[in-house]
Amino acid sequence: MFTSSPHDSVLASYGWDGSWEQLASTSDASGVPGRVARVDRGRVDVLTADGRVHASSRGHCAVGDWVLVADGAVAAVLPRRTTLARAATSGRSEAQVLAANVDTVLVTVPAESAARTGRVERLVALAWESGATPVLVVTKIDRTDDLAGVLSELALSAPGVEVVGVSAVTGEGVEDVAAAARGTTVLVGPSGAGKSTLANALLGADVLAVGAVRAVDGKGRHTTVHRELLPLPGGGVLVDTPGLRAVGIRDAAEGIERAFADVVDLADGCRFSDCAHEHEPGCAVRAAVHDDELPERRFEAYRKLRREDEWAAARTDARLASERRARWKQVTKDQRARYRARGR
Ligand SMILES: Nc1nc2c(ncn2[C@@H]2O[C@H](COP(=O)(O)OP(=O)(O)OP(=O)(O)O)[C@@H](O)[C@H]2O)c(=O)[nH]1
Ligand SMILES: [Zn+2]
C-alpha cells in the first residue's frame, strides 16, 4: 500500500507510471512513493511528490530505485525493471549497482576517436546486460569531415544499435538524441566525450534558466540544483550521477553475446559447439577474420571482454568458495565441540 498524493504529475516527471503504482499498491509495506536520487551509506535522498526527503535505508538502494518511505526510512524497494551494474574495482568482487530502472543508455563517443571502438563495445554490452536499450551517440560531429564514414564504422561495432550524431556546438542532432532518450536515460562514455555539454543541451534552456533564477534569489531558500535525476523537457528523466564513467564488465555474458551478435552468428558455423576460436580446426570465426569478413580488431575486442567477464566470474567463484570453506570450518569446529561436550 502507499499513500497517494495530489501531485502525481510531479512523480510522473520522475518516471512514475501505472505499473509502478500497481507495484506500490500491492506492496506489503506502506509509505510515500518516491524515486531515489542519491545514495550515501545507509542514507538516501528520495524525490517524492512533496519534495525531496532524506531517509535511512538498510537495504541496497540504488539511484533510480522507486521506494516507499515511511517514518524517515525506506520501507520497501519496488522490484527493478533494469539494473545497470559494473564490476567493483580493486579488492571487492561484488558488483556495484550504478543505477536502477534505466531504460536508455546513451553511449557517447567523440567523432575524432570513433575508430577506437573497444570502449563502445564494452558499454553497449553493459547496457544490453542491464536490460536497457543502448543508443550510440557520436559527439562533436562538427569536428569531422567524414561523418558518414564515422557513423558506418561505428554501426559495424554495434549491430542492431541506433547510432545518432550530435554537435552541441552547432546544435545539429540534439533533437535526434532527445528523441532517442526514452524513459529514464543515462549518459556514459569516456571523460571529455561531451556528456555534460550534451546533458545541458538535452535539458534545454528552461532548466538552465530555472537554475539561474534560483541562483539570483538566494535569500535563505535552499537553492541547490541537484544534478542526479533531472526531468527532460520532452518527457523522461536524465540520471546524471558520478561513477558512471569507468566501467568494468562482469556477469555480462548475455550482454556480450548481444553486443557481438555478428560474432555469435559466425560461431554457429564452427565445427565444435564449444569452440573457443583459438586453435580449433573448423573454426568459422577465425576463418571469417582470415577472409576479412570480421575485423580482427572486433574479434579481439570480443575475446578481451569474454576473458574479462570470465575472470570476474572466476574471482566471484573463488570468493564464494572461500566463504563456503570458512563456513564449513566453523560447522566442523562446532561439531567437534559438540562431540567433546557429549564425550564428557
Ligand atoms: N567541438 C565540440 N566540442 C564539444 C562538443 N561538446 C562538448 N565539447 C567540448 O568538449 C569538452 C568536454 O566536454 P564535457 O561536456 O565536459 O565532457 P564530459 O564527457 O562531460 O567529460 P567528463 O565530465 O570528464 O566525463 C569541453 O571542452 C566541451 O566544450 C561538441 O559538440 N563539439
Ligand atoms: Zn570457432
UniProtKB/TrEMBL annotation:
This protein's record includes keyword Hydrolase: yes
Stretches assigned to the EngC GTPase domain: 100-245
Keyword Hydrolase: yes
Sorted UniProt keywords: Cytoplasm, GTP-binding, Hydrolase, Metal-binding, Nucleotide-binding, Ribosome biogenesis, RNA-binding, rRNA-binding, Zinc
Residues binding GTP, per UniProt: T139, K140, I141, D142, G189, P190, S191, G192, A193, G194, K195, S196, T197
Highest rank taxon of the organism: Bacteria
Pfam families: RsgA_GTPase (PF03193)
Subcellular location as annotated: Cytoplasm
Cofactor mode of binding and number, as noted: Binds 1 zinc ion per subunit.
TM ranges: none
UniProt EC number: 3.6.1.-
Molecular function (Gene Ontology), one example: GTPase activity
Residue positions binding Zn(2+): C270, C275, H277, C283
GO cellular component assignments: cytoplasm
Binding partners and assembly: Monomer. Associates with 30S ribosomal subunit, binds 16S rRNA.
Function according to Swiss-Prot or TrEMBL: One of several proteins that assist in the late maturation steps of the functional core of the 30S ribosomal subunit. Helps release RbfA from mature subunits. May play a role in the assembly of ribosomal proteins into the subunit. Circularly permuted GTPase that catalyzes slow GTP hydrolysis, GTPase activity is stimulated by the 30S ribosomal subunit.
Family membership noted in the UniProt record: Belongs to the TRAFAC class YlqF/YawG GTPase family. RsgA subfamily.
Protein name per Swiss-Prot or TrEMBL: Small ribosomal subunit biogenesis GTPase RsgA
